[in-house]
């Protein structure tokens, strides 16, 4: 079996447009491979045709890649349903709604416009397993075989896809509740949520002002969105808004800002949602799945509420798989990938934001008040650009890392990990002493930079 690890990262296939694997020829072949593996992983009755839905974000390169991947699917006899620019979680939902065999998203999430990627969902709207990834990559080693004209697939466009997803997003709010009286600033990052998110919050009654809603194919995530919230913070304070909400390019992650301009990240949101659900006795299992990068304070804050907490490997697929194993309803990542199993099978930025707003409305509290009981520890998160061949096993890095573990001891955490979507190393250090935390983080950063220079 071919190992797909070198192509599929923690969130699908991703890379620079025009370089392997983000090229038209690879994507054409990938579409054919996906279509060819569907009969094996999702058998249908005789005479039935497989369906695949395809969504994308607002990058200019999406049009090129969409054409290529649908051509490969059609060559394999698969009917293709095109959704247009739409959030990643909408594709997961519509895959199930249309009884499709798979869903495909063309997006590089929070990356800049010159990158792109491909995410694949199974018929249940869940990220495909490594086993299925391996099957697809094995077929990538074979020549394409195109079916005859009668058995070729056909393309169709779902013109009301956005409207269907908007109604789906409103689930956290009962008909008798609304967002009337709440002033919101939205940052859609010039990405896939630019038409949908403002409508969702407006239709629920909020007063909405929006930025990042004029995509030109090149400005996605450019100084906006969940990875660049500075403009949103200023606008929330300037407009005296109750809350700010920032999505990334495909809206599967969200970051929030309280009325004072303070950042509320994914860990904070997990705490708010879990605490509210337990208080309101919503759901049966009050446990939360985070990741190795989740803040130590989240774990201790949930423990005070007698809410269980477990850590998975990074990646919302890993989070969701652990949620299923434990039977827990809530999970997510510090970056803002939040999954509520009552509503979604993958990270959904809009629904996560609505769950927070529901907690605010039900408790008649500000966002700032809902975060005041969270335990905070000094922490430092540093992202270091590295060569693609850089190894964390380098002797210099390994020595400094072992010293760091000894320094922090049982009263802190030290995490080093390669990003699954970019050529960077993430350094996370947490502990009781701010000075010690930053000193250890800077030592690790210096060691990684020095070792990386050896690859240049």
What can you tell me about this protein's structure?
The structure is a single chain. 36% of the residues lie in helices and 21% in strands. By secondary structure, it is an alpha/beta fold. The protein has three domains: 8-160, 3-Layer(aba) Sandwich (Alpha-D-Glucose-1,6-Bisphosphate, Chain A, domain 3); 170-370, Alpha-D-Glucose-1,6-Bisphosphate, subunit A, domain 3 (Alpha-D-Glucose-1,6-Bisphosphate, Chain A, domain 3), CATH 3.40.120; 379-453, TATA-Binding Protein, CATH 3.30.310. The longest helix is centred in the last third of the chain and has 20 residues, at 434-453. The two termini are 33 Å apart. The model has no long low-confidence stretch (mean pLDDT 94).
